[in-house]
């Protein structure tokens, strides 16, 4: 099987794009799905091309921004000094919140985003645009501070930058414009408090975003590929890999499952 090159440049030059229909950012605005059900999968890099080829045959379109199909994302997660948001996820609290700033590199847009998970398994995301200069300190924006005061669960003064993540994302949409499919590759993590870095070089995280648990070609394809859903959080994986001594029994078990799924123990961790 052909191996997928996990770089921004090579992902944007895949021969597949020549015969896969596209959708513009403006056309995608009607498929935001800010209140949704998410289904996640972990794939090995050499399985992603197979998935993309099948999705193209099923009429899925790939989002293109300024000629770019695999787009760069810079994300900064905020948390308390004791990382209460991380711990809530680790302890399986059904109702929880994550706070992050995110820059969409291809457009230059930056947002403060607040994600809430309900006890019914739905994800509701709220966001407000901020200046790029406020990426590391959204409190400097009066509008962002007001937004957080209205929607944040933790005291504003109690949270600070915790984990930076960088990755390349391919976004697909189905022919009926009722679901989005994202594929995140080349993930890199950095703990912002101790500057420990980590990555899982052969991993891809696939996420299906739907209004409800509807029939999906993606779900059928995953069954055919013998890939089961796996609940995974980029924030929690990155924190487990980069923060020494943090409570992580449940996530370490998940990392072992991921390594088995990928057929590798190639988790890179460096201190800088």
Describe this structure in words.
The protein is an alpha+beta fold. It has one domain: Beta Barrel (Hypothetical Protein Pfu-838710-001), CATH 2.40.320. Helix content is 25%, strand content 36%. The protein contains 8 helices and 12 strands. The protein has helices spanning 8-11, 25-28, 45-57, 84-90, 142-151, 217-224, 234-242, 249-262; strands spanning 22-24, 35-44, 61-64, 70-80, 96-104, 109-117, 122-130, 159-173, 179-191, 196-199, 203-210, 268-271. It has an 8-stranded antiparallel β-barrel with strand order 2-7-6-5-4-8-9-11, surrounded by 5 helices. The protein starts with 7 loop residues before the first helix and ends with a strand.
Could you write a compact summary of the structure shown?
By secondary structure, the chain is an alpha+beta fold. It has 8 helices and 12 strands.
Features:
globular; Hypothetical Protein Pfu-838710-001; 272 residues; alpha+beta; 25% helix; eight-stranded antiparallel beta barrel
Q: Count of helices?
A: 8
Distance from N terminus to C terminus (CA atoms, Å) equals 36 Å
Major sheet: arrangement of strands? 2-7-6-5-4-8-9-11
Order of helices and strands: HEHEHEEHEEEHEEEEHHHE
CATH topology: Hypothetical Protein Pfu-838710-001
Q: How many separate structural domains?
A: 1
Secondary-structure content class: alpha+beta
In CATH, the homologous superfamily goes by the name Hypothetical Protein Pfu-838710-001
Question: Can you give the helix content as a percent range?
Answer: 25-40%
The number of E-state strands comes to 12
Rg for CA atoms: 18 Å
**Global outline:** globular
**Sheet with most strands:** 8 strands, antiparallel, barrel
Determine the strand fraction and express it as a percent band: 35-45%
